[in-house]
Each structure stands twice: as C-alpha cells, then as structure tokens.
Amino acid sequence: MSTKNSTTTTIPPQPPSAAGKLNGEPPADHERCPVEEVALVVPETDDPTLPVMTFRAWFLGPTSCTLLIFLDTFFIYRTQPLTISAILMRIAVLPIEKFMAATLPKKNYTLFGRWGVSLNPGPFNIKEHVIITVMANCGVSIGGGDAYSVGAITVMKAYYKQSLNFLCALLLVLTTQYRTSGDMKRTILL
User: What are its GO biological-process terms (predicted)?
Assistant: First the structure.
C-alpha cells in the first residue's frame, strides 16, 4: 500500500479591503496612526469614489494661490508687514466651493472627442478641499517668502531709480525661481 505524502499549506490572512473599511470595519493596529492627535482627527478610511482633480479644484486652487501671492507681496512693503495665512485662504474659499457646487452645470462635456469632463461632478468633498489647500499653500510667504528677485527689482526702482519693463522683470522672476528648483532636483531625487 502506497501513501502519498500530502503537505498542507496555510494561506496567510489577507488585509481588509478598502470596501470592507468603508462598511465600518475597524482598521488593524498596524494601520492606525501612532500620533494620537492625528488619529483622532484624520479618518482612517478612504473613499476612492470621491473625485479629486475636478474643474472646481483646478479653478480655485491656482486662483487662491495667485491671490495669496499677490496679497502677501503687496503687504510686504508696509512698515509692519501683514501676512495672510493659508488658513484664512482656506476659510475664505469654502463658501466659494459650496457656491460652485450648487450653481455649476452637471452636464458632461467631451474634450477632443475622447475625454468626458463634468464641471460639477457632485457635492463638494473633503478631497477637493484638501487639494485646493495644498495648491494655496504654494502662495504662503511665511515659509519661503516671495521670490528673491522681487526684492532685487524693488531695490533697483527705489534706490537706483532704474526700472525694468514687465516682460524682463517676469523673466527674471521665473528664471531665478526655476534655477532654485533645478538646484534642488539632485538633492530631492537622491
């Protein structure tokens, strides 16, 4: 009589799926944030069906960033400079977000015969608000300040009575900012 040597294999337990977490399944201990304050405020679940890169986000994000940069640069020339924080911009943009969600048409438009785009994909959600906040934070002057070349252009006008035309000044600002990010590329990518 011959017997086959049978081996049993154990299948490790699978992590809970995103759909399981949406149904109220508690997260595993290794998925919980170790910082208690963050764990209490930030939800541990994600709804992948919420749209993020919408027309509303791409309109309000760069608009709020540009407005924040303009206001911070405008107020930097005061005796006691006034800085506008990103939190204020976040609060100011929220009613505009809600207004756009209520008034924009829900119709789908086709771009180049391939892509469907909706100006209003549904109610405004937290993911759109976060991406708008990230875009607006690029205009905050507390961390990085305004472009260094803006100070150079101001000194040229105030002390040396020389002026640059708009195109030359714009190219100076853009090239000096690009040069700085180009120098950081090696550091960031290593």
Answer: protein transport
Measured distance CA(42)–CA(69) in Å, rounded: 29
Q: What is the token pair recorded at 152?
A: 């150079």
Measured from the Cβ of residue 54, the count of other Cβ atoms closer than 10 Å reads 25
Taking the C-alpha atoms of residue 84 and residue 74, their distance in angstroms, rounded to an integer, is 11
Domain identity same for 120 and 64:
yes
pTM of the model: 0.66
- Please give the residue that has the higher pLDDT: either 31 or 88: 88
CA torsion 32-38-41-45 (nearest 10°) is -30
Same domain, yes or no: 82 and 120: yes
The verdict on residue 153 lying in a domain is yes
Average pLDDT over residues 69-83: 82
Tokens 């407005």 — which residue?
Answer: 67
Judgement on whether residues 62 and 118 belong to the same structural domain of the protein:
yes
CA angle 54, 57, 58 (to 5 degrees): 85
Which residue range forms the structural domain that includes residue 156?
147-185
